[in-house]
Each structure stands twice: as C-alpha cells, then as structure tokens.
C-alpha cells in the first residue's frame, strides 16, 4: 500500500497501517478500568486512545486489555464507564512509561538540534502521556 510509505499522523492512522506481522510487538501493558459490553459480561479496557464525534454521538477508540492494537474498536460514550472517560481526560500514566517517553522526547530533540537539517521534527508520544503533560488547556 502506498499509505504505509507516508509518515504516520497519529495512533488511529497507525492502527490502520498495522499488519499481522506487527501483532507480537503490540502487547498491552497496564489495566485501566472495566467496561460493560453485554448483559452481565465485562471486558477490561487498557485505555482510551482517541475521541471522535459521529452523527452527534461521541465515540472513543478503546484499546482492550489482552487484545492487539489492531483489535481496538470505536465504542459509544454511553457504553464506557465514567471513570474510564475521566482517565482519558485526566490521565495518570505509570511513572516508568512517563520516564520512557521523556527520554525519547529528549533524545529526539537533541538529535534534531545537533543535525544540520532545518526540517520540522516529528516526535511520537503516547496520547495519554502527552495529555498528562500538556492537558487540554495547553499548560503543565
């Protein structure tokens, strides 16, 4: 596919580009909260990845605990527990994950500053870590 040759814009785009060869490296890492799927059955949610509005209804891209990233699905807001939505808006990522993303960010910035290139730099962070630092208001 030609779309795989272009840089990935975000997590949802990355999900579209995932192949079955990538399945082994995309293991879920931590548990968040539960979500009611059918009467009496609960599915564990690792985290909410993205939010969108379709036909006036709000949906969240859910990364399921124990499932691969390409098996994530869009679920209506009504099906998701309020605590899970709260963690999406005010994430509390694991400290080791935050440190790992800080190191990646620092290395990418240093590498770009040392290079002769003046092209824009792309730095990929997990969405929950980014929201943890920046928040929706743009402050730390």
From TrEMBL:
PROSITE patterns: CHROMO_2. It holds the Pfam family Chromo. Residues 43-88 form the Chromo domain. It comes from the Eukaryota. This is Chromo domain-containing protein. It comes from Desmophyllum pertusum. The lineage of its organism: Eukaryota, Metazoa, Cnidaria, Anthozoa, Hexacorallia.
